[in-house]
Amino acid sequence: MSPTRYGRQGRGPEWDEGDEERYVAPHRGGAVLTLGILGLVVCFICGIIAWTMGNEDLHKMREGTMDPSGESMTSAGRICGMISVILAVVGIVILFGTGASFLHFLR
Predict the structure, then answer these.
(1) Is residue 92 part of a domain?
(2) Residue ranges of the chain with pLDDT lower than 70?
(3) Considering the domain boundaries, does residue 10 fall inside one?
(4) Can you give the pTM of this predicted structure?
(5) What does the pLDDT read at residue 95?
(6) N or C, which end of the chain has less CB nearby within 10 Å?
(7) Domain tally for the chain?
(8) Is 44 within a domain?
(9) Is there a contact between 23 and 4 (Cβ–Cβ < 8 Å)?
(10) pLDDT at 14
(11) In sequence order, which residues have a C-beta less than 8 Å from that of residue 29 and are 6 or more positions away?
(12) What's the pLDDT score for residue 9?
């Protein structure tokens, strides 16, 4: 992918004469959102990846080195990733908690 051309503020392709051009990386909002949804539906490891990528990308967007137009998709994917990891941890705790009490019942 080629870099996107933005003005000084990094908020759009419009700029005045004399403004310096800069190039920012394209956003990965679609990838982060896809991984977040896969984390909820398929495997929480995808959620961990979405959470990590979302944090990095949002940080880059706030610095102005990444295209900010995908901020909402990136945030949504990051939140889906967080939810998938939290649900997996809660499920593991419940699984081990009920497994231990079931084994105690058998004795």
Answers:
(1) yes
(2) 1-21, 100, 102-107
(3) no
(4) 0.74
(5) 86
(6) C
(7) 1
(8) yes
(9) yes
(10) 54
(11) 57, 70, 71, 72, 73, 74, 77
(12) 47
Residue 73: per-residue pLDDT? 97
pLDDT of residue 20: 59
Look at phi and psi of residue 44 and say left if phi exceeds 0, alpha if psi is from -120 to 50, else beta.
Answer: alpha
The DSSP string of the chain is -PPEEE-TTSS-S---TTPPPEEEBPP-HHHHHHHHHHHHHT-HHHHHHHHHHHHHHHHHHHHTSB-GGGHHHHHHHHHHHHHHHHHHHHHHHHHHHHHHHHHHHH-
Residue reference for tokens 């941890």: 89
**Res 58: pLDDT:** 96
Q: Is residue 42 part of a domain?
A: yes
CA nearest 81: which of 27, 45, 56?
45
